[in-house]
Amino acid sequence: MRWYTRRRSRTVCLSLAIASLSLHLLLAILSRSVYQNPCDAPSPRQTHLHTLRALVDTNYTSRMLDNHVGHGRKEEGPPMGSGMSKLEALFSHPLYNMPTPPIHEDDWLLKVKPKGKARETSTQMWVSDSDIGDDSAHWNRSSDSHPPWLRFHLGISRWQLYPHLDPNMASLAHQLSTHRIVSAVQKSGGTQLKLVMSFPNYGQAMLKPMKQERDEETNFNLYYFSDFERHNAEIAAFHLDRVLGYRRIPPAVGRLVDVVTEIKDITTDHKLARTFFTSPVNNVCFYGQCSYYCSTEHAVCGRPQNLEASLAMMLPDPSLATRRTWRSPWKRSYSRSKLAVWEKDPDYCDTVKTTPPYNKGTRLVDLIDMTILDFLMGNMDRHHYETFEKFGNNTFLLHLDNGRAFGRHSKDEPSILTPLEQCCRIRRSTLLHLRLLSLPQYRLSDVMRDSLSHDPLFSVAPLLSELHLSALDRRLVTVLQTVSRCQERQRSRHGEGDDVIYEDVTDYKTLVKHVTPAR
Ligand SMILES: Nc1ncnc2c1ncn2[C@@H]1O[C@H](COP(=O)(O)OP(=O)(O)OP(=O)(O)O)[C@@H](O)[C@H]1O
Ligand SMILES: [Mn+2]
């Protein structure tokens, strides 16, 4: 009996031990599965690596990337756990922070004189390249004591107008939108009314007034060459150019200008002053002198004195930094009946490719970059572009005059993409940027909305309507499809698609090495 009881209690103990062991095992398995998710979630670094690998894939398609990068699910926000806006996440992406070679003294647009020398010779402390002898010194290029406009001028290089994440940008925008206006005169040249405004610290800006409501579409019966210029297009173009990573448009911000105290009362331009009048509803209006739309019927009017306008930072005066103007090979005919050569000859690019300066260096792909910018914003008015003469042919193209962009959101204009269609050539870096902006977590319309919300006029109304923002996404898909078609065409001809890509990002290893966790 005792023997039986001992045996029973031993069995019970054994079963209890087995049960507790199983329970432990079960708990361990459960806790592992509970904590597994955060441990296995990709770090920002891994996400960046995934994105980059997918972006350089030659068989890239947008849908494939959604799966690749989002690990099968749609990732709507910026990289996990970053706490950043989509714009901040975009600008912190390695593609925007690639190591750049040091800028040599000859690669700056303006050289600065040592302070002593400058005082001896003249009151101006910056001089053009041709004015300077052997006494140049590395003096104060980024000094905090300089006004923002001078820091902007001194920061222009052979490769860009301003650096990525420019620490000067906020004060530059602040100056343009708030500093007292001490002078306003008409800017000569060009076809539509625009003014040059001066600030007490000698900075200058080019003003384009608001002529139509933001969501008003350009009349479909109007030819591109008689379209109005839009102040919000100048501002949005600056933001788009920066988002694309180009940095080839001078900073432009919005401002509510008092047409009486900030233009009429202070102008020394008598021709301009004479055109002021009061409208039947007591708004103050003016129309100036120019070849298009400078008449009472097309006057710009304050409400009653407040006028929305864009103010773009002026580039250094041509006497300090000469600019060269180039006619675009894909210039439109500016005629109601004539077609341009490129519209009649599908092989037109073969000729351009062998014609200087498009036969060497980056000029052709720089032009394609400009084409992509113009297609995205629907700008049909790119008849010319400019470069700084000092840098010869080895430099970026200035994307000035964007007032006729963002006129229509309901229609895309495929003819703007003709240079890309005909030449089938694109910088690797541009393609990577475009592909990045097609991902849901960096979506072009979202980063543009974010970027434009920093403009002072955002408090009046968003600079681009939602319809214009979504047109950007639609057009981006068209650009990427065009490139894919080019690659397919090339592949079917030669067995590969690499003639399409101008390889300007050669060192992927360096790029990937520089993938840093998002801050
Ligand atoms: N930010 C700037 N700084 C200095 N010069 C500028 C700036 N923006 C434009 N310009 C110069 O002023 C000229 C006229 O400006 P813009 O082209 O914007 O006016 P427009 O009336 O639209 O001209 P067009 O009718 O020829 O298209 C430009 O060709 C350019 O050389
Ligand atoms: Mn123009």
UniProtKB/TrEMBL annotation:
Keywords: ATP-binding, Disulfide bond, Glycoprotein, Golgi apparatus, Manganese, Metal-binding, Nucleotide-binding
Coiled coil: none
Keyword match Protein biosynthesis: no
CDD domains to which the protein is assigned, alphabetical: FAM20_C
Major localization class: Golgi
Binding sites annotated in the UniProt record for Mn(2+): 229, 401
Cytoplasm found in the keyword field: no
Entry's Gene Ontology BP terms: enamel mineralization
Cell compartments where the protein resides: Golgi apparatus
Entry annotation: catalytic residues: 381
Annotated FAM20 C-terminal domain residues: 276-493
GO molecular function annotations of the record: ATP binding; metal ion binding; phosphotransferase activity, alcohol group as acceptor
Protein name: Family with sequence similarity 20 member C, like
This protein's encoding gene: LOC115147470
